């Protein structure tokens, strides 16, 4: 169960005390784009949400996947992948058939795979023994979730194999998976599955990390996103960063049971104020009116210095934020059923409520705009998609850390739309900005190669366009 390419010379495991626990410390300096670590999963499963779209073994996306002839559940890109997965799938195949037409959840399948190997794999046992579970801190919601999962798990693995584990053992295993599992994503950061990784599990969190995790199929890659000095702790982000510090802290407490004390959270008032900012009451001014969370009111405009005239702005803002968060939940449900028009309808309705009130730097506005952009792309509404995407960029560039893949992916999507709509110069600029970020976070990934090919093609098209313009100018002379 070794790492795919061990890089111990780059870092060491270090004890950072009771609050942070184990972490990784740099042994040498690194620069942005340096590959810090590569790791293959200890155990993983493909998500049911993309079943039929990706290979169960390598997660490669394809339309001509071969079904397992027995269970018809697992799919593979070729015979080789099916053979590689047979050790894990052999037992699972029988279980899938037994519970059909019911489909076990991703977490149930992951727990079942660990259970079937735990007593025979010493390396797996050692790995699991080193993980924290925090199960003793679980609240009622987590306990209720475990009760539901344990019922499904018993039915899936069968009584005989289920009885090899006590409820206490399974509760602890549930906790270890919950706190240490990675969501495996494709190049555009869309979830494909879940997996457990040996060394990456040790990486601690920061809301302003110096490293980022990406994936190439199921292989996990860690790249430096900024200059790292010898002795620095290597950190990644565990949570969404396009939200105020109080939301990030709540998410980290609920999911990982610690209080974030990174530099970004300790000095969060200014950024949080902008994330909750309103438009200036002077319609000629483009400035933001930040919310002062220390006193619960809005400050003066950061451009013209004017104060808000509307004394009910705080209450109105809270109401729209609540409606926007409810809309995001509804959008998530509609996305599962691929109702893109429904997604767009909700997004446009909420954006209409926000228009003329929330500033372009407001975090919830950026998130709704992003959903509207996704829906328009799926509906092939290219002009609208570009308009929504461009409106997200101020917030993306301000709130995400340097060289964050979310910014690079968004620029790539915008650049593709601009090129498709013959806005070649704007498209080239967006693509070049995307390349600078994605080369750092992805290295020589297929996504970067696709991006570079598009840059080359756009340069050639611009060259032809310039040549034609010159030729037409000569004809006029």
TrEMBL record:
PANTHER family cross-referenced by the UniProt entry: EG:BACR7C10.4 PROTEIN, HISTONE-LYSINE N-METHYLTRANSFERASE SMYD
Keyword Zinc-finger: yes
Pfam families per record: SET, zf-MYND
InterPro entries referenced in this protein's UniProt entry, alphabetically: H3K4_H4K5_MeTrfase, SET_dom, SET_dom_sf, TPR-like_helical_dom_sf, Znf_MYND
Domain MYND-type, chain residue ranges per copy: 55-93
Name listed for the protein in its UniProt record: Histone-lysine N-methyltransferase SMYD3
Boundaries of every SET domain copy: 6-239
Gene3D superfamilies the record matches: 1.10.220.160, 1.25.40.970, 6.10.140.2220, SET domain (2.170.270.10), Tetratricopeptide repeat domain (1.25.40.10)
Keywords: Metal-binding, Zinc, Zinc-finger
